[in-house]
């Protein structure tokens, strides 16, 4: 609990306005300090804030991020997601050597993350040709040892074409095709590379000959090359995109949508979220105050969060009460700091 209290103090001096999702994440780690996913989400949001901030604000965010990373280490030290957090933090600080090393470790722990490969290739683009090729040679065996179909093969090949050139990318695709002849995603990647960057009828004919065995062997596969369009309030949340791509097998294309529009679509197609709490009960009780003070039980907190997702009025009331609490916390912090400041010696 000592580590949790120190995080609460840091986040309230002054606290960054996180919106509804940020408040829910803060409630989650208060309710369950062992929630590694929530700690990582908070870390990702703080690192994103750091990258968008001026130098003065970065100085204030740095100790928060370092503390959040320590919480990620405490709750899930061997998790690939924790290593990705450290890699992102190295990138944000411009430590490219450290970022390359951490992305390589993340890939060793989880060879199925397109996000890790993409960032590693982006970081290695700052190296010389020989060093850049060496980095890719180090991760390629891990990539090819992936147990399932290489659903990210096309993305990697196109990234290589942009970073190393089309000729080098075609050699890689050919090598993968030889080593994984039964993988339809590799065949699609190789054929797509020829169609996108090839010249004339000969390359189109080659792409057809590459795809033909995959179509013959997997005649009912609708996932090969399919694109799933996802409406998101935060299309930069690459962890969510990677998870969706991994679980569905589709290539994912994010589009921006407001939270209200997404909520309306969910209600229209799947029905409104069910909750035993109504607006009148919330306004006539101290349930929100107890929620913000972490005095609700886990079951009742989940009920309230479900209700808030479908009720803009109660959500606005929650944010208003949270802003009042934040103002009081900041004022209390200012008073404590003024009281603890050494007084100047009195003149006699």
Q: What is the strand tally?
A: 2
Task: Report the sheet-strand fraction.
Answer: under 5%
Order of strands in the sheet with the most strands? 1-2
| Average pLDDT figure | 77
Detailed description of the structure:
The protein has 348 residues and is mainly α. Strands 1-2 form a two-stranded parallel sheet. It contains 18 helices and 2 strands. Among the domains are: 1-77, no CATH class; 272-321, no CATH class.
Supply the key terms:
single chain, mainly alpha, 2 strands, 71% helix, globular, 348 residues, two-stranded parallel sheet, disordered N terminus
Please sum up the structure shown.
The chain has 348 residues and is mainly alpha-helical. It has helices at 2-11, 19-31, 36-52, 55-75, 80-92, 96-109, 114-124, 129-144, 153-163, 166-179, 184-197, 200-217, 238-248, 259-270, 279-283, 287-292, 298-310, 312-340; strands at 227-232, 251-256. It is built from 18 helices and 2 strands.
What's the layout of helices and strands?
Blueprint: H1 2-11, H2 19-31, H3 36-52, H4 55-75, H5 80-92, H6 96-109, H7 114-124, H8 129-144, H9 153-163, H10 166-179, H11 184-197, H12 200-217, E1 227-232, H13 238-248, E2 251-256, H14 259-270, H15 279-283, H16 287-292, H17 298-310, H18 312-340
Parallel strand pairs: 1-2
Helix pairs in contact: 1-4, 2-3, 3-4, 3-5, 4-5, 5-6, 6-7, 6-8, 7-9, 9-10, 9-11, 10-11, 11-12, 17-18
């Amino acid at each position: 609990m000592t580590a949790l209290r120190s995080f609460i103090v840091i986040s309230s001096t002054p606290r960054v306005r996180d919106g509804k999702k940020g408040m829910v994440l803060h409630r989650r780690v208060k309710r369950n300090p062992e929630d590694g996913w929530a700690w990582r989400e908070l870390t990702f949001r703080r690192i994103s804030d750091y990258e968008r901030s001026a130098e003065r604000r970065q100085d204030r965010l740095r100790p928060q991020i370092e503390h959040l990373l320590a919480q990620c280490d405490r709750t899930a030290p061997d998790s690939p997601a924790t290593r990705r957090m450290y890699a992102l933090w190295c990138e944000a600080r411009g430590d490219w050597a450290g970022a390359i090393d951490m992305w390589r470790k993340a890939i060793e722990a989880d060879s199925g993350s397109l996000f890790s490969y993409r960032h590693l290739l982006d970081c290695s683009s700052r190296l010389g040709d020989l060093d850049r090729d060496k980095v890719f040679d180090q991760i390629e065996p891990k990539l090819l040892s992936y147990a399932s179909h290489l659903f990210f093969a096309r993305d990697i090949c196109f990234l290589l074409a942009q970073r190393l050139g089309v000729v080098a990318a075609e050699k890689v695709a050919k090598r993968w095709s030889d080593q994984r002849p039964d993988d339809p995603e590799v065949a699609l990647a190789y054929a797509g590379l020829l169609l996108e960057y090839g010249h004339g009828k000969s390359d189109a004919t080659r792409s057809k000959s590459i795809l033909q065995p995959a179509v013959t062997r997997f005649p009912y596969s609708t996932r090969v090359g399919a694109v799933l369009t996802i409406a998101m309030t935060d299309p930069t949340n690459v962890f969510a995109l990677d998870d969706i791509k991994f679980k569905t097998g589709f290539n994912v294309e994010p589009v921006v949508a407001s939270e209200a529009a997404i909520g309306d679509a969910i209600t229209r197609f799947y029905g409104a979220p069910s909750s035993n709490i109504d607006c009148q009960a919330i306004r006539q009780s101290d349930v929100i105050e107890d929620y913000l003070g972490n005095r609700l039980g886990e079951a009742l907190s989940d009920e309230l969060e479900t209700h808030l997702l479908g009720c803009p009025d109660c959500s606005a009331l929650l944010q208003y009460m949270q802003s009042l609490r934040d103002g009081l916390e900041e004022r209390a912090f200012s008073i404590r700091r003024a009281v603890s400041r050494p007084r100047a010696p009195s003149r006699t």
